[in-house]
Design goal:
single chain, alpha/beta, Rossmann fold, two-stranded antiparallel sheet, 10 strands, about 50% helix
Length: about 300
């Protein structure tokens, strides 16, 4: 197979586009898709400071590298979850990547914040993935606002977006469907959140990471077994294999026709927000969900006889 653009031997097949590229032309394609998302959805404006959420995986590190190459003022933020072995490995990859490319990095250690994920799993009676996601989003938004970043960028790719859209559609969750998309504007104490990789699949970001020699953290989280999105992604992978192009068609179709309808439906709803009494983050309940988690973990940890015996 030859590269569609330059006719050199192809290295990256893209069935969804009925094409294939050599590594140089794939790099140009990847950049073009990121630029198209930024331009079409107004994700980042010239001169804005961008905080990039870094997990250590292929998507977030590829996003960080690409935005830096495009000339954006980027700083990485990694949340160290405090999970034995797993968190140290992920953090090491992030720190090594930023050192190699001369990129700025901030690290939040949940152990020091009194909310390590192993304690959340042990003391809180709710799915740990849900609590972990809530805590990470809290810190991403908090650092973005406290340190004057205009944009918070995450590495969500097309597969992530389609899986989330599919899950929300199965539940007809109008609240989530009303604000799903590549850009969520800043308001009510929340930073502007953007997803510049929304047009690129996991396979494409994986190829970018590999071709650019990015060393990534690949081990799955030891607490993530049974996550529903994994099953949704498998379903969509099968559909895409049978009918290439369905992912981007589904997602683009929703953004053009579905999201505006749900946004009109939901625009008058929602409880008023005010700063959290503890951390000043926006909340509708006096004390925000993350501070309530921290209070509960602290109390239950103090009452744990096994902890007291140590």
């Amino acid at each position: 197979m030859k590269c569609r653009k330059c006719k050199a031997p192809a290295e990256v097949p893209l069935p969804s586009h009925n094409t294939a590229f050599c590594r140089d032309c794939f790099a140009a394609y990847f950049t073009g898709q990121v630029e198209k998302a930024i331009r079409r959805h107004g994700l980042i404006k010239p001169g804005e400071r961008v905080l990039v959420a870094l997990s250590g995986g292929k998507d977030s590190l590829s996003l960080m590298l690409e935005l830096s190459r495009l000339g954006y003022d980027v700083t990485g933020l990694h949340v160290d979850l405090g999970i034995p072995v797993s968190s140290a490995a992920a953090r090491n990859k992030v720190e090594a990547f930023c050192r190699l490319h001369g990129l700025k990095l901030r690290v939040i250690e949940l152990e020091k914040e009194g909310l390590p994920i192993p304690d959340v799993k042990r003391y809180i009676n709710r799915p740990v993935c849900s609590a972990c996601g809530k805590i990470k989003r809290h810190w991403f938004n908090r650092i973005a606002l406290e340190e004057d970043f205009q944009v918070l960028a995450t590495g969500h790719n097309l597969d992530d977006e389609v899986a989330r859209l599919f899950a929300n559609t199965l539940r007809w969750d109008a609240g989530y469907l009303s604000d799903q998309g590549p850009c969520l504007q800043a308001e009510n104490g929340f930073a502007r959140k953007v997803k510049p990789l929304c047009r690129l699949t996991e396979f494409e970001t994986g190829c970018y990471a590999f071709l650019n020699g990015i060393e990534i953290h690949t081990a799955p989280c030891p607490y993530s077994g049974g996550a529903s999105f994994t099953g949704h992604k498998r379903l969509w992978a099968d559909l895409e294999h049978m009918s290439p192009g369905q992912k981007i068609a589904f997602y683009d179709g929703f953004l053009k026709r579905g999201r505006p309808a749900f946004a009109r439906q939901e625009q008058e709803k929602g409880d008023p927000l005010a700063p959290c009494e503890v951390c000043k983050s926006p909340t509708s309940t006096g004390i925000c969900g993350v501070c309530r988690l921290k209070i509960a973990v602290t109390e239950r940890r103090a009452a744990d006889p096994e902890r007291q015996a140590k």
